[in-house]
Amino acid sequence: MSYWVSEHIGGGEPEDARQIDWASLPPEIIAWVEVPGTEIDEPIVQADPAYPNRWLYADVFGEGGYGTPYIDCDCSLEGPFTIVYGHHMDDGSVFADFASFSDESYAREHQMINLYTRADNQRHELRVAAIDVVNASYETLQTEFEDEGELADHVSACLAQSDVVLERQTDVDHLYAFATCSYETWNSRTVVYAKPAAMGAG
Question: What DSSP state is assigned to residue 79?
Fold first, then answer.
């Protein structure tokens, strides 16, 4: 079953731009992420604080055991910081290709991310800013901020501490983090930070 239609839906999109047939998808899917030139082409759901790890194992389509990429239960798609987790499958599916972003040349070749959102039926272009490989045993991602100043400090720290930095702009009003397992240590995660492309390079 195809979830894509080529119909042009408003805005400044070209007529052959991909659009999602949201009506054909389960209501739990609130977004879809696509990274051109990679195998990343996945639905995104929102984790519930009552069952924060449900989507690690639950396939939103009811098939297999790959789980479903999901937004951290302490975050939201509206921001200002949105963390999305997805499995690194041995067959290269789900978020496996995000682990390759730790190679700077690969990251630069695949710097654009398309995020499609159900709420506004729009495609949002994101641009990868930095990549960090963390040890999840003692490094965690912050999900809540008291004010814009704390968020700005966090963005600055993320970029400064990342292993690969493509863009250093820190005045970001919405930062996305796509996280998947990698194998530098038994509990390593590769975190790909991205910001709205409209903000430009820094």
Answer: S
